[in-house]
Description:
- The protein is an alpha+beta fold.
- The strands form five sheets. A three-stranded mixed β-sheet has the order 1-2-3. Strands 4-5 form a two-stranded antiparallel sheet.
- 35% of the residues lie in helices and 21% in strands.
- Mean pLDDT is 76; it is low at 1-6.
- The protein contains eight helices and eleven strands.
- It has helices spanning 2-15, 20-31, 36-52, 56-65, 69-86, 104-111, 125-129, 136-139, and strands at 93-95, 116-121, 142-145, 159-165, 178-184, 190-194, 200-205, 213-217, 224-228, 246-248, 251-253.
- The chain folds into three domains: 2-88; 116-184, no CATH class; 190-253, no CATH class.
- α2 packs antiparallel against α3 (36-52), α3 (36-52) runs parallel beside α5 (69-86) and α4 (56-65) runs antiparallel to α5.
Amino acid sequence: MKIQVSEIFKQQLDKAGKTERIFQQALKIAVSQEDKYTKVYLLRDIVTAMVKSDRINEAYSIAISIDYDFAKHQALKVIAVEMVRKLELPFSVIINQSDLGDDQVRQYCDEENIYDYDVIWGGDLPGIYGEDYNDPNITQYCWFRVNQSLVDFWFTEDCTHKVFYFAKDNLCHRTNIWNYTFHVDDEAPYMDITYPEHGYYKGFCESIELEFCKQYLKVNTNITLNAYDLPDNECNTSIESIFWRYYYDGDSYP
């Protein structure tokens, strides 16, 4: 029943164009529900609709005012998901506990096309899959797990990452444990200019920034553009190219 009510709410919110009136009506109906699960799903749908309508502050106010902690957490999760989407950042959901045990987190991820990963302790795997998994390279670590034949993932931190991975089939056979090392470069390079000792003069400056200074050069005097990649460690990919042009007498060169 609660799923049907939730679906009706979604349809009403879409049809009404998410106006103030329909939000208020929906909110009244949601908070009046005696069944706490129904209340959770309805409030979640209202908060989702508000965030997608760029009514972030109102959605957040509703979320933090919910007096039932589980419902509050569900609403705040939805706000977090929709905000990250608006920023166009990659994200996924890691499931390391089951909330109320009704699989709603996984269902929500499926509905919203969000990757969801389990986190499982390797020490539990021999008891689940057999002695072939009783390997310290497995049992001494936590692992992400996804129940499908492919998975996308990404790194959110800079520099060196070592990835370990293996797969199993439905008869509990497993592959070897493989690993690859990736160096993540998430920083842009920077540049500066080296001016010659002779044939260069810095005149009046309107501010401390050099670009606001009058600068003078002799003809055929070298200016050196220096580019440096970051981070300043083994994870930088090094500079490939420098680009420049100049403007003279109303024309851009080259």
